[in-house]
Amino acid sequence: MEFKKILEQHSEESWNKYIPTLSIDCVIFSFHETTLQVLTIKMKGQERWGLPGGYVRKDENVDDAAIRILKDRTGTENIYLQQFYTFGNLNRSESAFEEYDDKLWNKQRFVSIGYYALAEYTNVKLVIDQYSTACEWKSIAELPEFMMDHRTIFDRALLTLREQLNNHPIGYNLLPEKFTMPELQKLYEAILEKKLNRGNFYRKILRYDILTKLEESRKGGAHKAPDLYSFDLEKYNAALKEGLKGSW
Amino acid sequence: MEFKKILEQHSEESWNKYIPTLSIDCVIFSFHETTLQVLTIKMKGQERWGLPGGYVRKDENVDDAAIRILKDRTGTENIYLQQFYTFGNLNRSESAFEEYDDKLWNKQRFVSIGYYALAEYTNVKLVIDQYSTACEWKSIAELPEFMMDHRTIFDRALLTLREQLNNHPIGYNLLPEKFTMPELQKLYEAILEKKLNRGNFYRKILRYDILTKLEESRKGGAHKAPDLYSFDLEKYNAALKEGLKGSW
Fold first, then answer.
1. Taking 70 as the threshold, does the pLDDT of residue A247 lie above it?
2. Contact residues, chain B, for A87 at CB < 8 Å
3. Which site among A15, A23, A86 would you substitute to test the B interface, given the most B Cβ atoms closer than 10 Å to its Cβ?
4. A188 contact residues in B (CB cutoff 8 A)
5. What is the distance between the alpha carbons of residues A214 and A157, in angstroms, rounded to a whole number?
6. Mean pLDDT along residues B153-174
7. What's the rounded mean pLDDT across residues B201-224?
8. Which residues does B contribute to its contact with A (CB < 8 Å)?
9. Averaged over A16-27, what is the pLDDT?
10. Hey, where are the domains in chain B?
11. Residue among B56, B108, B16, B109 nearest A87 (CA)
12. Is B154 buried (19+), middle (13-18) or exposed (0-12) by CB count in 10 A?
């Protein structure tokens, strides 16, 4: 089994290079064709899909490790990245390596720090490394079965997005610079996992006074060209600081 | 130096008992005499105050370790506990043990998982263990200098309380069962670190319809006895689920 050899070969190097016990898993979101997507990989020797991840070097801050792992997988470090939860249950990952030697690096107990990232879809170049056979965006509405506890990690990341929708720049980081109001509404609906009334959504969003209506409109398509908007970053950031719904 | 001996004696036991690299720090809040308080300890051999913490046993989930550490320090496990952030910068803790042997357990690099806890002041019995000389509540407005990066950990915990004020049961867990409206307002002011207008606060809080006005009032004092309230837990939880400010 070729993958087993690769892991065994790298095990000693990993013991020397990384701090023990700790791993990082990344939930990388993007928004494409009106659906919220998440980056998934297929590791060699695993039947199920998983989230991209890695370890922390002995001479590296944990946040810097997350940036490095994200860059290795997406080709860019210019991505909004936020730690959201650390997953520390017994046997959350060890079982994936049952048939291996107990000294194998990957078979140790790992507590994993979860980071979510918000990527602009077109900015990302997906990278398949030596440990994986595939790296793909998947719609969050049609996720495959995940390995280990990666479904739990994903669910928690989505819950965090939802809780932070009003005080973190989530729309700004997931949408292209110019977007239509229906696209913005679809994004909110995807994160909140519920349908929103069009009129109410428009009224609320416009009342926050965080958007700039552009002179241009979206070309192409059979219908009337829809208006384009962009975020007024100064006003958006000020509103986020207070919480979009107004503060106490 | 007596403390050095204690650490050295326990070092081997710690290496055997706990998973490496990981520690837990607890920011335990309570509300007493109209001020928000945090539990601080003074470790033997340290000049500065710190937050209570500990390590994760090899056969223990991380969340269970946090509950155990909290119980060891406060005598109760019936306390609202929430993980909020993991602190992983290089040299965040190692420098406190510079004059010790490099193999000493405590001198290793530790990445620390932060938990905040919300305690009802009168429920807590403070415990001074063999590693500490003092364990005290301190008003968050008058904090002493902290050891290591414990000030950073505290600041992040308070920021989290503020962000979660509208969707976690923070008021319920910090106040006694019966409280007055001025006490509730003081709690919100302490968490938000700003003065609130009395009339606006009353109107907003009453509009959420999460309080029950009790038949009794607070006895004693020279002034008119103030009305007592308690949370209507069913309504409060439903409101938190949607976010107190109303949902999208």
1. no
2. 62
3. A86
4. 248
5. 32
6. 92
7. 84
8. 19-22, 56, 58-63, 65, 83, 85-90, 109, 111, 113, 163-167, 188, 192, 196, 201, 204, 243, 245-248
9. 97
10. 2-164, 170-242
11. B56
12. buried
**Residue environment code for A44-76, b if the CB has 16+ CB neighbours within 10 A, otherwise e:** bbbeebbbbbbbbeeebbbbebbbbbbeebbee
The string of pLDDT tens digits covering residues A195-208 is 999 999 999 899 88
Indicate the CATH number of B2-164 among 3.90.79.10, 3.30.1330.100, 3.30.390.10, 3.30.2110.10.
Answer: 3.90.79.10
Instruction: Return the CATH number of B170-242, one of 3.40.50.1820, 1.10.10.10, 2.40.50.40, 3.40.50.150.
Output: 1.10.10.10
Please tell me the distance from the alpha carbon of residue A127 to that of residue A71, in angstroms, as a whole number: 9
Do A248 and B163 count as a contact with CB atoms less than 8 A apart? no
Indicate the pLDDT class of residue B76, thresholds 50, 70 and 90: confident
Binned at pLDDT 50, 70 and 90, residue A99 comes out as confident
Total residue length of chain B: 248
User: Among B62, B166, B248, whose Cβ lies nearest the Cβ of A88?
Assistant: B62
Residue B18, by phi and psi: left (phi above 0), alpha (psi -120 to 50) or beta?
beta
Nearest CA in chain A to B247: A245
Instruction: ipTM value, please give it.
Output: 0.90
The verdict on a CB contact (< 8 Å) between A88 and B61 is yes
Here the tokens at position A158 are 């989505």
Identify the closest residue of chain A to B65 by CA–CA distance: A88
Average pLDDT over residues A203-216: 91
Q: Confirm if B38 and B136 have CB atoms less than 8 A apart.
A: no
Q: Given an 8 Å threshold on Cβ–Cβ distance, is A85 in contact with B83?
A: yes
| % of chain B beyond a pLDDT of 70 | 96
Residue B96, classed as helix, strand or coil, is helix
